[in-house]
Amino acid sequence: MFLNHNKTHTEKKAQHAKWYIIDAKDKTLGRLSSKIAYILKGKNSTIYTPNHNQLINIIIINSKFIHITGKKKEQIIYKRHSGRPGGLKQEKFNVLQNRLPNRIVEKAIKGMLPKNTLGKKLFTQLKIYSTDTHPHQAQKPVILH
C-alpha cells in the first residue's frame, strides 16, 4: 500500500483558554500593540497554525497611562464617520485619551490583526480596562511583562 508522506499535519484546536494580563502603564503604544497582536494570534506557540484560533485571552489594564513618542500627541488624528453626508468626526490623541482611553489601544491592536472572520474573533478575546481593576480574577490570568 502506498503511503503519502507529503501530507501536512495540523494540531488539534486548543482545549483550554489561556488568560494573560498585561499592564500598559508607561508602555509605548506601538510596541505594546504589536506584542499583544503577536500573542493573540498564537505565534509564540509551538503549535501555531495561521487559520486556527489558539484560544488566548488577553486582559490589558491601565490603558489610560499608555504613552507615545515624539510629537504624535498633537499630530495623530483619529477619524470616524457616521455614514451620513458631512458626518466625519476628527479627534486628536489627547482629546480621545481623556474621553475614551481604551479606544486608542483597541484601534492600534485591531489594525495589526487579520482582516477576516478570524481577526474579528481574536478581537473579542481582548479585554481592555482603563484602570487596574478587572472582573477576570476567576480565570487566574498569567502576568506578562
**Radius of gyration, whole Å:** 18 Å
The tally of beta strands, per DSSP, is 6
SS class: alpha/beta
Percent of residues in helices comes to: 25-40%
**Name given to the CATH homologous superfamily of one domain:** Ribosomal protein L13
> What's the quaternary structure here?
single chain
State the CATH architecture of one domain.
Alpha-Beta Complex
The share of residues in extended strands comes to 15-25%
CATH class of one domain: Alpha Beta
Spans of at least 5 consecutive residues with low confidence = none
CATH topology name of one domain: Ribosomal Protein L13p, Chain: A
**Terminal residue distance:** 52 Å
Tell me about the largest β-sheet.
4 strands, parallel
Quote the average pLDDT: 93
Characterization of this structure:
By secondary structure, the protein is of the alpha/beta class. The protein has a domain at 18-67 and 99-143: Ribosomal protein L13 (Ribosomal Protein L13p, Chain: A, Alpha-Beta Complex), CATH 3.90.1180. It has helices spanning 29-41, 72-75, 93-99, 101-110, 117-124; strands spanning 18-23, 56-61, 77-81, 88-92, 126-128, 142-144. Strand 3 (77-81) and strand 4 form a beta hairpin. Helix 1 crosses helix 4 and helix 3 (93-99) packs across helix 4 (101-110). The N and C termini lie far apart (52 Å).
Describe this structure in a few short sentences.
By secondary structure, the protein is of the alpha/beta class. It has helices spanning 29-41, 72-75, 93-99, 101-110, 117-124; strands spanning 18-23, 56-61, 77-81, 88-92, 126-128, 142-144.
